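Format notes (please read before filing issues)

Several people have asked whether sequences and structure tokens are stored in separate files. They are not. Every record keeps both together, in the order shown below: the sequence lines, then the token lines. Line labels are part of the format and must not be stripped during preprocessing.
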Amino acid sequence: MLALYSAEQSHIGARRRNEDACGQVRVGDSVCLCVSDGAGGHGGGDVAARIVVETVLGMFEASPGVSSAVAARLIEAAHGAVLVAKQDHVDDMHATCALLLIDLERREAVWAHAGDSRVYFFRAGEVVFQTRDHSLVQTMIDAGYGGLELTRTHPQRSLLTSAIGNLEGIEVSVSGEALPLQVGDSFLVCSDGWWEHVHETQMVTTLAEAVSMPDWLERMARVVSADPAPRHDNYTAIAVRLQDAGAQPPLA
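Then the structure lines:
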């Protein structure tokens, strides 16, 4: 059995409202963690993000499971819920979603996402995996028109090719077979307002320096707030560390 230690932060940045949402729920040995970044006029973004997180966590709590099929169904259910809400609220509202599912007894994890909110997986002091954005810039990178630095610098970096609430449909990326977990593995689930300002090398450095998951998030949040960008987006993240259930003292 693994023990899970987590923390979350969500900041308004320099925007008028916080259109990010996040949350987590545990049912027995199964855990679901979710981050959503909403967009849309007249308050539609924060409504969309809240609907995504509430739908994902509520559906998982009612019927927990850790598999790629479950992860995809959770995002698809959130997409359906936002489409319904659009009929009575704001037509142009949509949202991203990044979610992580962990089975502590089986020591396995899967994840899924739509949009440019990301899941990062860390092992042995390195970024082993990060999700691939559903964005115009990522499409350009895949076609050979630049490197990954464009995801942080290109003026059209926020244009998405898949998002929850799109009437044309949604593309959901899932991790595939469940990942076997080890003691010391860590995850970061975050919105683009977070990863745009905290480079992967800084994520690794601050993780090595941190004494807890709240401390790791606080160190990264200071990097975001210190960035001289003229208009900080909302920035939200959930940090996770897996440890031996009998380890003392735990990394809280």
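For reference, the curators noted about this record: The longest strand covers residues 2-11. The chain has a mean pLDDT of 91.
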